[in-house]
Amino acid sequence: MKDTVVLYAGMGVGQLVPMVALAKLFLRHNLAVTIVAVDPPMTWGSSSKVISSFASANPSISFHLLPTIPIPAEISHCPFDTMFDILRGGNSNLLDFLVSISKTTSIRAVVIALFCTATLDVTKKLGIPTYFFMTTSASDVAASLQAVFSIPYRLPENSGNTGYRNGGRYGGIRYLERKYREISGKYRVSVTGRYGCR
């Protein structure tokens, strides 16, 4: 079976350019690469045309678009909270996809975009090593991690009843903090040049 790395770009197309650049690095090391994205709800615009154009331009990389997830009934006013809900709701589709391709390939790792922390539940269940991919500078990574670990303790406990998983106005930050703490001590930080390329 071919060793494969799955790159999970999450929802939308913002992470696709850097993920394709990272995929090309893995290809140089004789690894197969599959880039997975979630098709956003119709009101946000479909990613299928963009994914098709990336696939045409990069035939050595496999692309897979997970089905659209319905927007939760209790929609938050915060787009980040809505994104977390949709990505978390898509875990079953991601699980099915990973199980399906693992019958013909050996998944060596899953690399996820920053806001795809819900994926950790899936990869933990399957025992697949998972890594975060951030395309920002090292100082941005440090500031982001510092914010996620310190801000939740400075936020008021009762910050409103809207937000991710009833976490209030700052539910998204609290959710990231919980997920990052679950993997605390398992970080591997590698600082490279633009788009992760040297």
Question: What is shown here, in short?
Answer:
By secondary structure, the chain is α/β, with parallel strands linked by helices. It has one domain (2-136, 187-196): Glycogen Phosphorylase B (Rossmann fold, 3-Layer(aba) Sandwich). It has helices spanning 16-28, 48-57, 79-89, 91-101, 119-126, 138-150, 171-182; strands at 2-11, 32-38, 62-66, 105-113, 130-133.
Topology:
Layout (H helix, E strand, L loop, with lengths): L1 E10 L4 H13 L3 E7 L9 H10 L4 E5 L12 H11 L1 H11 L3 E9 L5 H8 L3 E4 L4 H13 L20 H12 L16
Parallel strand pairs: 1-2, 1-4, 2-3, 4-5
Helix pairs in contact: 4-5
Provide keyphrases for this structure.
alpha/beta, 39% helix, Rossmann fold, globular
Structure characterization notes:
GO terms for molecular function: UDP-glucosyltransferase activity. InterPro entries: UDP-glycosyltransf_plant. The chain is α/β, with parallel strands linked by helices. The protein has one domain (2-136, 187-196): Glycogen Phosphorylase B (Rossmann fold). The chain has 7 helices and 5 strands; from the N terminus they run E-H-E-H-E-H-H-E-H-E-H-H. It has helices spanning 16-28, 48-57, 79-89, 91-101, 119-126, 138-150, 171-182, and strands spanning 2-11, 32-38, 62-66, 105-113, 130-133. A 5-stranded parallel sheet has the order 3-2-1-4-5, with helices on both faces. Helix 5 (119-126) links the parallel strand 4 and strand 5 (130-133). The radius of gyration is 17 Å and the shape is globular. It starts with a strand and ends in a 16-residue tail after the last helix.
